[in-house]
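User: Please predict the structure of the protein below. I'd like the answer in structure-token form so I can feed it into my own downstream comparison script.

Assistant: Understood. Taking the following sequence of 188 residues as input:
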Amino acid sequence: MITPAVLQVAATPTTPALALRPWSLEDAAPLVEAFRDAGLRRWTSHTAENEAEGTQWVRSQQQSWTAGDRFSFAVLEAQPGGLCGQLLAGVVLKGVAAGEPAAEVGYWTAAHARGKGVASRAVEALTGWAFDTFAAGGLERLELLHQVDNRASCRVAQKSRYDFHRMLPAAPPSFPQAGHLHVRRISP
């Protein structure tokens, strides 16, 4: 079992420090609020309409940590003294399995946090943690997928040093349009 981790990302001159931690039940209401954004709903296949659904979603993320196959983090604005502020985004490492060379990274950003470098910084932190944690088990590369018309996600991939690998055909219903596959390999 992988011990739940808290990842810290330092502030920059223009962006706040970030704390990435496993989801907790206190995140259910802010999660529902984030998912009310039509822009976010356009790009994600999972939403929570109310606090009960938000709680259910958080519990499923917690169960995935226990199962060891999906590691989802809430991305929050870090506050002094180790406290966490407002929910900004979510990042996830999925498809992790011993002996498998690849896993997938996913992410989303709340409307109020877009355009501030939150997603790329969170993806970078998740990437480092993934390679540090799972390379000994065979993890060699991470894959990042997005729909071809999601230009913001393409910029996040590029800023996070994920190279464009190839075009992907549409795979409805979860991937209704063609997409990009970006890859980042572990550094030797």
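That's the full token string. The first strand starts at residue 7 and ends at 9.
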